[in-house]
Model the fold of this input.
Amino acid sequence: MTHSTTQNRQWILRERPQGAVDERHLQMGSVERPVPAAGEVLVRNIYLLVPPAMRLWMNEEDSYVPAQPLGEPMMGITLGIVEASHDPALPVGTYVNGMGGCQDWFTAPAAQLMPLAPHPGVPLAAYRSVLDVQGLTAWAGLHEVCQPQAGQTLVVTAAAGSVGSLVCQLGAQLDLHVVGIAGGADKCRWLREDCGIAATIDYKAEDVGARLAALCPRGIDMVFENVGGPMLDRLLERINDRARIALCGMVASYNGGGTQSAHALMRLVTKAARMEGFLVRDHFHRYAEVAAKLQALVLEGRLEYRIDILDGLDQLPVALENLFHGRNLGVQLLRLSPERGA
Amino acid sequence: MTHSTTQNRQWILRERPQGAVDERHLQMGSVERPVPAAGEVLVRNIYLLVPPAMRLWMNEEDSYVPAQPLGEPMMGITLGIVEASHDPALPVGTYVNGMGGCQDWFTAPAAQLMPLAPHPGVPLAAYRSVLDVQGLTAWAGLHEVCQPQAGQTLVVTAAAGSVGSLVCQLGAQLDLHVVGIAGGADKCRWLREDCGIAATIDYKAEDVGARLAALCPRGIDMVFENVGGPMLDRLLERINDRARIALCGMVASYNGGGTQSAHALMRLVTKAARMEGFLVRDHFHRYAEVAAKLQALVLEGRLEYRIDILDGLDQLPVALENLFHGRNLGVQLLRLSPERGA
Done:
């Protein structure tokens, strides 16, 4: 079943996964296309972002958002187009970002949507990825949490990921010594050849501790951390005095398990170092400014990014599986419907 | 063998302990009393501080100080009295703080020693405990790292310890809701009855998670952390948005083992919270100011403290053992020689 103008396909969370997500947990259903109420607009979702955090939302415990309720359509971060409007502020044909859910259609009041003015030189999908939450996350973690100083050493984990690859490039532009850790020779080559990152570590093929020793001869001043687990232990073992570890995510823990070595964490004490989580929502007041800066970099060809687009809402389980096996390259999106025309 | 005017007993680190310290690792030897060179003074150690970190110094890996070398006298933080002087700045009879080692006597240039002017209303031992490193550590962790705001909730672990008990009291004086976690009914009673801390948790007898839920109905804004391990996991599970965790130590890791739950650490991300190590050495520029404030509080009877004094240099292994079993109440000191007269 593909996209329809009368039906609304929805992924429903039926059961909370303990480990990996499969068809027991997420099931696709279909209801009638919703009708916008007074003051609302009808949006056709075009792109659905599939971030690692989506797995976290499925847990029983609240995360930075309330836990996804069982039996209801999965939350989803989407880019869509207004197809019917009861609000003159958002005419038909306007592209909007919103929390549109893992579904084909949704209705919402205009105040809950962010209208977009896509530049013709930039792919539409970039507005739900590099120029959006990923870009702001990279910027906030690097500038606000890591507090970079030129010449210092920054290590980025999940470096070929949607946020990590931006952090690597923004860090290099600040004259930091950037080391990117990614899984696989292809990702590392992409970081070196296309993103201009001098030093990479392929954690699937190389000894991370030994490579860090070789590539960070002056120790580690900053970590942009997406992974957690033993890799974080290796990083902590090499931090310098007053190091800053920006915790963007700890994907190693999302499936429920994982430990950190208390011995490695003790390095925070002996190095008077700081490990700090941050949420992009605390930085939305900088959104317009940062998005404009990033768009300018993209148009100048100074910011490389890759968007991994799978076609079809039905590919959500595949997309999640890819994410947790590191098979995606860059931001993972699903394309639910054509960019133009219904 | 007791203190002598001709011999200098010394604890020598013979072997690095993996777990607990015993006679294989630390052995007492004796050499001739040292003679001060030109510009040096001879100091008779009176009090030797036995902090939990002493165990950490014995590990092969450098901590916040270089690792203790094997075959040499153990580093030690002492208060002593000048018994011979080749420097007019430190006449005979001056009390001094210094890194005098786990031994009876040492020589040093005056510049390496801090002369004391003990107030007659304050016990001498307080100048190598509550009014010294412990006081400055408590003050720096509370003010600089926790950044307290009146009405917020502060949880202190090892709350009956040398630093923790000061943090509890200083926190209560800032109108924080203070919850102290300590091991044993006696320690908890002391915190409540003598230190004026309303809420305590006896981790040896009570379910820490359940008690935290009851005693911190508005969640946890600040943690002054000395312990690590499962107790820290329980604390992380209850932190509020933008919580601050001041890592003073993680005594659970000093013997080499211990893990933290990655799931609990992930709360740092979802709460945009900060876990920050700190070292008292970074705050020595505030030493005089903070020591004066604390001495005033002691003289006004507004700062309760306990000093656990064992008599004799030979008691070092016992003192270490007591520390790691939580048998000490307050700062652990050894008295090596009389306060006055040789």
